[in-house]
UniProtKB/TrEMBL annotation:
PANTHER family reported for this sequence: ASPARTATE CARBAMOYLTRANSFERASE, ORNITHINE CARBAMOYLTRANSFERASE, MITOCHONDRIAL
Stretches assigned to the Aspartate/ornithine carbamoyltransferase carbamoyl-P binding domain: 9-150
InterPro entries per the UniProt record, alphabetical: Asp/Orn_carbamoyltranf_P-bd, Asp/Orn_carbamoylTrfase, Asp/Orn_carbamoylTrfase_sf, Asp_carbamoyltransf, Asp_carbamoyltransf_Asp/Orn-bd
Assembly mode: Heterododecamer (2C3:3R2) of six catalytic PyrB chains organized as two trimers (C3), and six regulatory PyrI chains organized as three dimers (R2).
Domain Aspartate/ornithine carbamoyltransferase Asp/Orn-binding: 158-304
Keyword field: Pyrimidine biosynthesis, Transferase
Alphabetized SUPFAM superfamilies for the sequence: Aspartate/ornithine carbamoyltransferase
Protein name (Swiss-Prot/TrEMBL): Aspartate carbamoyltransferase
Molecular function (Gene Ontology), one example: aspartate carbamoyltransferase activity
Reaction equations catalysed: carbamoyl phosphate + L-aspartate = N-carbamoyl-L-aspartate + phosphate + H(+)
Pathway assigned in UniProt: Pyrimidine metabolism; UMP biosynthesis via de novo pathway; (S)-dihydroorotate from bicarbonate: step 2/3
Function (record text): Catalyzes the condensation of carbamoyl phosphate and aspartate to form carbamoyl aspartate and inorganic phosphate, the committed step in the de novo pyrimidine nucleotide biosynthesis pathway.
Keyword Transferase set for record: yes
């Protein structure tokens, strides 16, 4: 098992090097095998408490953090914000202080405000994991995407990755840009100027392309993104039908990418808006595998953070 560098929280991929990233992927590889053989090490987090604190909707991330914690033997609490005292006006920081007083060990936070997990990390004793903060980052998504790619293509360098759709509002895109450029791959950001403004080239090492055919041509990976309507002012796209016509991934467009290019999507998908149903379900799609890798990555993250206490 790889040695992981000591890091008390996982708040974002930005600033992480190849050396910081690879050990998570190696550790998660073990957890894929152990999960498949139903022999996860339940002693790893025995006696620890993981709290899932989600202020935004989630299916995959929250469930997989719960499964990950349970497979490692932790007690896992899912706080349902909709029925919590947040509705009585309690602030984010007071909510966190309350959980802290109950001696939670690992706090997994999703919040609509960029930077909310980082703020909590300064206030609580628990290890904080960012499960998605506003338009900022979704680090475990980028790690699970990288694990999926590595298992299929055996490398993370020298690849051409087209990240397509509503890049501007996407924390998934940001975390993937940081991770894949750190690993030495080429990123194309593809979408209409309203969703992929040219200034995004300032993120460094990325190319902005407004024509979808050109964007996917020759790509090793086509990563589609949902339109983040919850973060969008109206009028950024004419209509969903028009959007699909110009920017949706259908069979014809997929044929422009490399033969056997991987089709990815973080989920949830809007079929017929950014991706055709038959493409989402095709042999080139690794979307369900991304979900499986999500559990393994989250096991690796929880395990690493808990272990870091014992690393000098
Ligand atoms: N589930 C991902 C996120 O929370 C992507 C999405 O919602 O479109 O960022
Ligand atoms: N990919 C992702 O984060 O999915 P959820 O929003 O369902 O957690």
């Amino acid at each position: 098992m790889a040695e992981l560098s000591s890091r008390l929280h996982l708040l974002g991929i930005e600033g992480m090097s190849r050396k910081d990233i690879l050990p998570y992927l190696d550790l998660a590889e073990n957890y894929v095998l152990l999960s498949r053989s139903r022999s996860s090490p339940r002693e790893a987090l025995r006696g620890r408490t993981v709290v899932n604190l989600f202020f935004e909707d989630s299916t995959r991330t929250r469930t997989s953090f719960e499964l990950a914690g349970k497979r490692l033997g932790a007690d896992v609490i899912n706080m349902t914000v909709a029925t919590s005292s947040v509705n009585k006006g309690e602030t984010l920081l007071d909510t966190a202080a309350t959980l802290n007083a109950m001696r939670c060990d690992l706090l997994v936070v999703r919040h609509g405000q960029s930077g909310a997990p980082a703020l909590l990390a300064q206030k609580v004793d628990a290890h904080v994991v960012n499960a998605g903060d506003g338009m900022h980052e979704h680090p475990t998504q980028a790690l699970l995407d990288a694990l999926t790619i590595k298992r299929h293509l055996n490398r993370l360098n020298g690849l051409t990755v087209a990240i397509c759709g509503d890049v501007g509002h996407s924390r998934v895109a940001r975390s993937n840009i940081h991770l894949l450029t750190a690993m030495g791959s080429q990123i194309r950001l593809v979408g209409p100027p309203t969703l992929v403004p040219s200034v995004m080239e300032e993120l460094g090492n990325v190319m902005v392309i407004h024509d979808m055919d050109e964007g996917v041509r020759g790509a090793d990976i086509v990563m589609m993104l949902r339109m983040q309507k919850e973060r969008m002012e109206s009028g950024l796209v004419p209509s969903m039908r028009e959007y699909f016509r110009f920017y949706g991934l259908d069979r014809r467009r997929l044929r422009l990418a490399k033969e056997n290019a991987l089709v990815m999507h973080p989920g949830p998908m809007n079929r017929g808006v950014e991706i055709a149903s038959d493409v989402a379900d095709s042999a080139q799609s690794v979307i369900q595998e991304q979900v499986e890798m999500g559990v393994a990555i989250r096991m690796a993250v929880l395990d690493h953070l808990a272990r870091s206490e014992h690393t000098p």
